[in-house]
């Protein structure tokens, strides 16, 4: 998943195919872990985005959105705000960019 998470078209079907698993088996594996496939993918993407915001302060947020697999900056902003409670810009401005995750 980490290898291909920047692909905005990556979905459960693609992940299952890449792992040579049926979609059903993939979902069962994730169900046992307590997180859905797509929720895990979103978590990985947001984790990478937070890292990029901390280590690349000059990078445009729209570029980070695309590089981390979000299909648009709007989709990225919504997901980021839902998880962190702030926008990517607010995250940077608050000084979180230099602190721990």
UniProtKB/TrEMBL annotation:
Residues 1-94 form the HTH araC/xylS-type domain. Keywords: DNA-binding, Transcription, Transcription regulation. The keyword DNA-binding applies. The keyword Metal-binding does not apply. It holds the Pfam family HTH_18. GO terms for molecular function: DNA-binding transcription factor activity; sequence-specific DNA binding. InterPro entries: AraC_XylS_family_regulators, Homeodomain-like_sf, HTH_AraC, HTH_AraC-typ_CS, Tscrpt_reg_AraC-type_HTH. This is AraC family transcriptional regulator.
């Amino acid at each position: 998943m980490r290898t291909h998470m920047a692909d905005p078209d990556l979905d459960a079907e693609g992940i299952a195919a890449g792992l040579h698993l049926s979609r059903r088996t993939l979902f069962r594996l994730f169900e046992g872990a307590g997180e859905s496939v797509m929720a895990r993918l979103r978590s990985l993407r947001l984790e990478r985005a937070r890292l990029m915001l901390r280590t690349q302060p000059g990078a445009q947020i729209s570029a980070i959105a695309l590089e981390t697999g979000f299909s648009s900056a709007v989709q990225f902003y919504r997901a980021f705000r839902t998880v962190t409670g702030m926008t990517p810009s607010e995250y940077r401005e608050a000084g979180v960019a230099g602190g721990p995750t």
